[in-house]
Specification:
This protein is α/β, with parallel strands linked by helices and 627 residues long. Among the domains are: 20-72, no CATH class; 165-200 and 222-396, 2-Layer Sandwich (Nucleotidyltransferase, domain 5). Helices cover 32% and strands 12% of the residues. The protein has 17 helices and 13 strands. The chain has helices spanning 20-31, 36-43, 47-56, 82-97, 104-117, 124-129, 134-143, 157-162, 165-179, 183-186, 277-291, 312-320, 333-336, 355-369, 372-381, 529-532, 559-598; strands at 191-200, 228-236, 241-248, 266-269, 299-303, 323-327, 449-454, 458-464, 483-488, 496-497, 505-506, 600-605, 619-624. The strands form 4 sheets. It has a 6-stranded mixed β-sheet with strand order 4-3-2-1-5-6, sandwiched between helices. A 3-stranded antiparallel β-sheet has the order 7-8-9, with no helix packed on it. Strand 10 (496-497) and strand 11 form a beta hairpin. The radius of gyration is 36 Å and the shape is elongated. It comes from Loxostege sticticalis (Beet webworm moth).
């Protein structure tokens, strides 16, 4: 019969768990005549450990026992020193804050590469697997409790790179300018935020308590794919909320759709359930009605710059009613919009939900979420009220650092004199794979001699195989040694920000934020991962495609901005009309061809004339439309 596999035995209580003072006391008691077992039990140390230390310190005087090391020296087998592990830890933190988080295998591979680059003694299993061991990772995490294993949330590259210092500075400049126009804007009683959220009949289920050992634990919902109802919420920095607007996916709106909604709510209908430019005019009328906005009692409305929000009719209505509209920079609403700092939580309560129950559920969640404390704290976190342009720090802007590069060959008509965005996300940003074909350890069994050749623009790592595994050379002797390029970003493509003006481009190579840059390592010539790993930077632009004009934060109701929006809308309308006029003759010709194909040719024999013979009869062909 096969033997049952025994689990890994845990360490005993005395192995490495005793303090130096307990061992010193046990040694003194033993020298006073106590037995080993009695002294070990009295001082709560292991009997075998005490016996080993008694033999080790047999020739040491009792007075000199305190100067001896009386605890295990487990650090003698550590691969990296404390300072070296700190450098690795800070690199892991930097990658995570830049939204390029490393998995457990990535960390093990980087640890192996760091040991090879710095010629550090490593176990043979590391060389065999080309990565650090799992036990090393477990010990590394136990020594650094500030690191934890988390499941990351999906974040688009546009959202990560659009939230940059220039975009935030531009918004707060516009906000400061608007708040100085009227005293009521400065005290927050006339500052509002508008945003739409998708409310569906099928909500994302929350975590539930279930028995162990059972898989596929689910929760009953109305369906697997819900029907969308757009809920438009409006809140004030003073701490109150306006009645919401609900857009139902129907052709015609019925009053019973708002059953259970907060008093004063507005109901709209659209086939798609999304907000449109035509419906937003009614939303603006709803806002003006409940805020009593007028030229004598103006209001400030902050919202995103979605196309449906910036229709010419809505802007004209807002300006006539004393409403100043300030838009946010695209893809920054997750951090800069108060209504995005928290959301409405709708519980299904195990009932069959249709769009006719949405209003009641929204009404229940609205009263719980839209409290004065929640609304005021959300405006404060965004720095809108009280006004705080320094609410975001360098760590918040770290994800945008990966795309800091120069805008090359952009026509002047596409650039804004007031604001230039250095973090365009139109071109896909690709990070060099540190463990793929560009890795210094790819397809090399014994990487022994690693030579670094650095220049102003590029940095290379040359790898040369040698019989001596512990030797480092500064020259490449083998002409066929592979030279693998790690960082080839010319300095003219690197953009730094000048402190005097955010729109001035400086050609000096920028230094990415590094937590490990201030560490003073005691090891001579130690190379941290920031030095030999590929930088978290986007590659230079490739191609001659004309970049699109970027969105930006603007005061939409101001005359210059409104005229520019009107001009753009007119151009879009003309392009659409021109395309429609071009398609019309094509469609007419296409319909004619279709009609011609549907016409069948019918063979008909005409009776011959009396005076002609039968052979001289003529056959006529004509087409007859299909009936």
């Amino acid at each position: 019969m096969g033997r049952t596999k025994v689990a890994h035995r845990k360490k005993g209580r005395g192995k490495g768990s005793h303090a130096a003072r307990n061992m010193l006391r046990a040694l003194r008691l033993h020298r006073q005549g106590w037995s080993l077992r009695k002294a070990a039990k009295e001082c709560q140390v292991s009997f075998q450990t005490l016996h080993r230390y008694v033999k080790k310190n047999d020739n040491v005087n009792t007075a000199e026992l305190g100067a001896q090391r009386l605890t295990p020296n487990y650090d003698v087998n550590r691969v990296f020193q404390t300072e070296q592990e700190e450098a690795l830890k800070e690199y892991i933190k930097e990658c995570a804050l830049k939204l390029y988080g490393l998995s457990t295998k990535d960390v093990r591979r980087i640890a192996y590469q760091m040991a090879i680059v710095n010629n550090i003694k490593i176990p043979d299993s590391w060389r065999l697997e080309k990565m650090a061991g799992y036990e090393w990772l477990r010990s590394f995490r136990s020594r650094h409790q500030d690191l934890t294993l988390k499941k990351p949330e999906a974040c688009s590259l546009a959202r990560a790179t659009a939230f940059n210092e220039e975009a935030v500075k531009k918004f707060f400049c516009n906000l400061k300018e608007v708040m100085q126009r009227h005293p009521s804007f400065g005290n927050g009683c006339r500052v509002y935020n508008l945003d739409e959220t998708a409310t569906t009949t099928v909500q994302k289920p929350q975590k539930v308590i279930a028995p162990k050992g059972r898989q596929n634990i689910g929760k009953i919902t109305s369906g697997e794919k819900g029907t969308l109802v757009t809920t438009c919420a409006i809140v004030c920095a003073a701490g109150h909320a306006l009645p919401p607007v609900l857009d139902f996916p129907r052709k015609h709106y019925k009053d019973h759709m708002l059953t259970g909604a907060p008093p004063g709510s507005l109901g709209l209908a659209n086939l798609s359930g999304w907000m449109t430019a035509e419906l937003f005019i009614k939303v603006m009328e709803h806002f003006i009605k409940h805020t009593s906005a007028s030229p004598e009692n103006p209001a400030l409305l902050i919202m995103d710059n979605h196309e449906s929000h910036l229709s010419v009719e809505a802007l004209d209505l807002a300006k006539q009613s004393g409403v100043t509209i300030l838009t946010l920079h695209p893809h920054t609403t997750a951090k800069m919009q108060p209504l995005d700092r928290y959301g409405l939580l709708v519980d299904e309560n195990y009932q069959q939900i249709t769009i006719y129950n949405i209003a009641e559920l929204v009404g229940q969640a609205y009263t719980k979420a839209m409290t004065p404390n929640n609304i005021a704290s959300s405006f404060k976190k965004c720095g809108i009220f009280p006004f705080n342009s320094d609410v975001f720090n360098e760590i918040d802007f770290m994800p945008s650092e990966v795309s800091s590069r120069e805008l090359l060959n952009i026509p002047t008509d596409l650039q804004d004199d007031k604001f230039i965005n250095h973090s365009s996300s139109e071109q896909p940003l690709e990070r060099q794979n540190p463990f793929g074909s560009t890795s210094i350890l790819t397809n090399i069994e014994n990487p022994t001699e690693i030579i670094e050749e650095s220049s102003k623009d590029t940095m290379y790592f040359a790898i040369q195989e040698s019989d001596n595994r512990n030797s480092l050379s500064s020259d490449v002797t083998d002409a066929e040694s592979p030279v693998l390029q790690f960082n080839e970003i010319p300095s003219e493509h690197v953009v730094t920000r000048n402190n005097e003006s955010p729109s001035i481009l400086d050609s000096t190579p920028s230094k990415p934020i590094s937590f490990a840059s201030e560490l003073k390592l005691t090891t001579t010539n130690f190379k941290s991962p920031n030095e030999f790993m590929p930088p978290l930077k986007s590659e230079p632009r490739v191609g001659k495609r004309k970049p699109r004009k970027l969105g930006r934060s603007l005061i939409a109701t101001d005359t210059p901005e409104k005229l520019q929006i009107t001009k753009e809308r007119q151009k879009a309308k003309e392009r659409k009309s021109a395309a429609k006029a071009m398609k019309r003759p094509i469609l007419v010709e296409k319909n004619h061809e279709v009609l011609k194909r549907k016409t069948k040719r019918k063979k008909v024999k005409i009776a011959s004339d009396i005076e002609t013979s039968e052979e001289e009869n003529t056959e006529y062909y004509f087409s007859e439309a299909c009936k």
